[in-house]
Amino acid sequence: MRGVGKAMQAQGQWSGSQLEARELDSSCINDSHSGLDGRRGCWRNSGHALTVVVATNVTFRTPSAVDGNRRSVTLMGEKTAFLVTFHGVRGSTPCHGDDIVRYGGNTSCVSVLSPDNQPILFDLGTGLRYFGRECLNSGTKFVGTCLLSHSHFDHTQGLPFFSPLLHEETVLKIHGPAQDDGMSVKEMFDKLVSPPLFPVGLDRIPGTIDFIDTVDSDFMIDRVAVKARFIPHVGPTLGFRIEFAGKSIAYLSDHQQPLDGSHQLSDGAIELIEGADLLIHDSQFTPQEFQQRATWGHCTAEFAVWAATQYGVKSLALFHHDPSRSDDALDARLACLQGIGQQAGCHVFAAAEGMTVSL
Ligand SMILES: [Zn+2]
Ligand SMILES: [Zn+2]
Fold first, then answer.
1. 83-88 and 356-358: which strand pairing?
2. pLDDT tens, 129-148?
3. 3-state percent helix, strand, coil for the chain, nearest multiple of 5
4. What count of other Cβ atoms lies within 10 Å of the Cβ of residue 324?
């Protein structure tokens, strides 16, 4: 979600001269400038040469090609490690209109299924409601884990509308960051989901929700290895990386680019992104918009492509689209950025509501 505010003090150090995005098509890249500011999870220079990687065997399913039960593991081939479905891809606020029907208007929510592991959700935006409907269609309770990036509305608003929580055997674990003042994830949700902001409190929900305050850490969800790292945004924000059966997915939905528009990553972001098979990354702004909104906690799609190509990512899903971005505008941006990714062996696509990716 957009955060309007003053630049905050950097909480760490970075060093060295900044890396120019000279390998990339300059028509799509904002100029780099000197002088930096950062938030939690400071940026640092990579010093890496552009990495050329072989495209991964990621395959895509459009909504029209997906059957009525996207949760079914029968969709997975024998060697499929992850089945990733985008339920909400929009940043900041849900939106609708004839000009966004193809990419969709719900906010951040991605489900990840893998064989013999419980489902994993990235974030609880308004897209969660649609994932919940699919769970009920399958006739089962939901037992799974959410990796919550942060507390902004566009990542949390879907929780009270997640209908499997009406099933008393549903258990949802939520790993997310506590606030800087010590407010826990549970306290934050209790505040969000209670009168007068919501008709009832979370204690009236039949299902079980376990909240786990999470910091920089590595842990397991069944056989899926999870890495959580703080990344720069507005307020405490985590990015995640999950790995299973030799495949990896990195999720950095809201990621502040250095305020001067340059291209650098924090140590934590590098740990998450490096060599990922699929990177789902903030792509909210154009370079022109970023100049006006540099302190809002986000980045350009060009920055996402730079990060992906610089750190050997095989496929990049542009995510957290600005609510003002029309389908046609996104297509035009994508056409330009795909060419840049292709030069470095990275497949770039724009995440769309209902799209399923298997890897
Ligand atoms: Zn957001
Ligand atoms: Zn946010």
1. antiparallel
2. 999 988 877 767 899 999 99
3. 25, 25, 50
4. 12
Three-class SS state of 284: coil
d(CA 15, CA 18): 8
> How far, in Å, is the centroid of ligand 1 from the Cα of 16?
30
Cα 154 to ligand 1 centre (Å): 5
Cα 113 to Cα 233: distance, rounded to the nearest angstrom:
27
Q: Which ligand lies nearest to the CA atom of residue 154 in the structure? A: 1
- Token pair, residue 57, equals 């065997």
Ligand 2 mean position, distance from CA 261 (Å): 18
Ligand closest to 253 (CA) is 1
Write the pLDDT tens digit of every residue in 15-74: 222 222 222 233 332 323 222 233 345 554 333 322 222 234 455 544 433 333 333 333
Q: Could you tell me the distance, in angstroms and rounded to a whole number, from the CA of residue 279 to the centre of ligand 1?
A: 16
Ligand number nearest CA of 322 is: 1
The Cα–Cα gap between 153 and 222 comes to: 29
What are the pLDDT digits (tens) for 49-63?
222 222 344 555 444
Check: CB of residue 268 under 8 Å from CB of residue 298. Answer: no
Mean pLDDT computed over every residue of the chain: 83
* Nearest listed ligand to the Cα of residue 256: 2
- How far apart are the CA of 101 and the centre of ligand 2, in A? 23
Residue by residue, DSSP assigns 210-253 as EEEE--SEEEEETTEEEEEEE-SSSSS-EEEEEEETTEEEEEES
Point out the ligand nearest to the CA of residue 150.
Answer: 2
320 Cα–ligand 1 center, Å: 7
What DSSP character marks residue 54? P
Token pair listed for 191: 């505040």
Q: How far is the CA of 254 from the centre of ligand 2 (A)?
A: 5
pTM: 0.82
- Are residues 156 and 124 in contact, defined by beta-carbon separation less than 8 angstroms? yes
Distance 110 CA to ligand 2 centre (A): 16
Domains, the chain: 81-334+347-358 (3.60.15.10)
**Residues near 252 by beta carbon (within 8 Å), at least 6 away in sequence:** 149, 231, 239, 269, 272, 273, 279, 280, 281, 282
